[in-house]
Amino acid sequence: MSFKLRHLRLRTETLAGTYGADIPFETGLNVLWADNTMGKSTCLQAVIYALGLERMLSSRREIPLTYVMTSHLDDPETGEQHNVLESSVWLELENGRGEILTVRRTVKSDIDPKLISVFSGPALTDPADHFTQRDYFVLDPGAAQREAGFHRMFVDFVGWALPRVKRYDGGETTLYLETLFPLFYVEQKAGWSAVPAVFPTYFQIREVGRRAVEFIMGLDTHELELKKQQLELDIAASKAAWVIKRDEIQALARLTSGRVEGIASTPMLSVAEIERAVLLLPDGNSWRTLAQESHLIRNQVADLAGEDVPTVSEIAPELVAEINALTTQIASINAERNNLFRLRQVENAQREAAAVRLASLDDDLKKNQDAQKIQRLGSLLGSNLVLHHCPTCEQPLADTLLPQRAGVSVMPVEDNIEYIKAQKAIFNQVLDQSAVSIQDFEKRLAALTEDVNARSFRLRALRADLTAPANAASISAIEQRLRLETRLQTLDDVQLRFGESKLELQAISSRHKALLDERGSLPDDRFSEADKTKLTVLTRLIREQATAYGFTTFSASEIDIAEDTFRPEKQGFEIGFELSASDAIRLKWAYQLALLELSRKQPTNHPGVLFFDEPRQQETKKASVQHLFERAVSAKDSGQQVIFATSEDREQVEGFLRGLNCSLVAFDGKIVQRIR
Asked: Which InterPro entries did the record assign (predicted)?
């Protein structure tokens, strides 16, 4: 996954003819030399413009080219000024697979500059052939995602797979090319002001610098973080699904005035434990399982089915006795209901009192913690008044207005905090127990109410029998059979749904266990072993180069790379204002060239190309620049490319390059000349 420049062409059409420049590039170190204001920086910025990346320099979408390409130019030979009628930039590129394409983008033209034409071959270095042309767009939404977007095509050409990253608003977006290029393209105006780079922030990408370095270095940490985040989301979803299903089972239990036992509020990991969960129905002051209740009623229904429906005269002697018994039972149940109502009210009152006490404890805890913080910060407020000794007789005094009894002292604030926390734990436990008790009262009340209603309905049927003709079928007998059959049908339906729900809980449990196992298999450290190796190698390369370049603010061996930001640091603190201006430039050289060299030793996503516009900043010593050039030459052996643009004294530059295997492209005057 790499690319390199083969040829850059600038063209400007005027009434006086065609002007332009052609600059060839080779593998290894390329030095572009011209005096100041001769168009050197225009050439490098033309590369950025051709690739549709001007927004890495500014969010305003301004064309980063000088008036020579946009407005007018002065003929270097005659001095005459000519208006620019049309202009364009051409750039020939080659990727790591040996594929070549040529990009053309207009600057001033009837054609919208958002349009980029791509030719499938070396249209500049081999213009005799005819190459297929395809047009793409840039600077509009979708340029990095859609098939007709130039940046999507360019990413495929380089061989990258750009990751999705988090935005400040919580959404996700692509790690755009404009956030990556500052790591291997340093422009003259602002590019030298930060290490490792000045990143555009208008994309609203969280920790954009960190994400860019992670990608270029090919670190696993981002993918690992995303995987951990996704696992946490999946685990939370699993817990939520469990709670929803548990609530559904509890609602199912309420259909029979029952309760569920054996299903926890959080996912259970044992399938056997879930299988042992039961649904209990009230039986007076005790409980029996749903299966037991179903078995009992099924036997009653079977017994009644084997008998004919009796007439009123056949059961007349039994009616009065059953009516009296039901009346007594209903009265007894109502009395029990009243008692449960009272107990629930008492429990509610105790729960409210505990909640009030807990709120008071929370307030006390905050006050004591604030007092502790003030003391730890060194506050002496009140120390002149409270010295714990009488100012006259030196008798010890407790810090309280209470009577001064011997052997009694007020707890210090630290003990107060621990005591309040203990009290809070007790009252929280009281609240939890109270909630369970109230829930139990409500279930028993619901069961008793259902029981009273059923017995009252039976009582009305028995009384109806007393006024019915003697030879009529007993209404109460018929009602009893219908009630039992309906009850059995309800219980069977609940039993079936309860069994299905347990199977669904088991599926959730298995999924939850698999997620926990997967999370447990991930490394605790946010860096894989491969990541740690890359960071170690990068740090070594930076230290090595900083030493060679004459870094002197402190020992280069003290330079480290922060694991959270990937910025240079010393002893855990980011390197900042303590650096001399020239050492800041040396560190910038070292960092960006180290990223390039790292890709020779470790698998990374670095494109294998590096641009420096005016690398000699802040009057850096000549010896430092000499070492930089010597270091950059090694790119040729790895098939990489380094491009320096400079306006330093030409003889000095030629002296730096003497004996080095590199390419020097020098212009004696303006780079943009008349094309003959």
From this structure: P-loop_NTPase
What is the CA angle 565-567-569, rounded to 5?
A: 115
How are the residues of the chain apportioned to helix, strand and coil, as percentages rounded to the nearest 5?
A: 50, 15, 35
CB 133 within 8 A of CB 110: no
pLDDT digits (tens, 9 = 90+) for 175-216: 999 999 999 999 888 888 888 888 988 889 988 999 999 999
d(CA 154, CA 606) in angstroms, rounded, equals 15
434 with 350, same domain: the answer is yes
What does the block give as tokens for 631? 């270091």
Tokens read off for 341: 């109502």
Residues 234 and 167 in one domain: no
How many domains in the chain? 3
Say if residue 331 is in the same domain as residue 450: yes
- The CATH number of the domain holding residue 206 is 3.40.50.300
Please indicate, yes or no, whether residues 446 and 495 belong to a single structural domain of this protein.
Answer: no
pLDDT tens for 461-497 read 767 766 666 666 666 777 777 778 888 888 888 889 9
> What's the rounded Cα separation, in Å, for the pair 546 and 593?
11
Range of the domain at 443: 311-471
- Whether residues 211 and 243 fall in one domain: no
Element (H, E) at 643: strand 641-646
CA distance 155 to 76: 39
- With H, G, I as helix, E, B as strand and everything else as coil, classify residue 664: strand
Torsion of CA 151, 156, 158, 160, to 10 degrees: 100
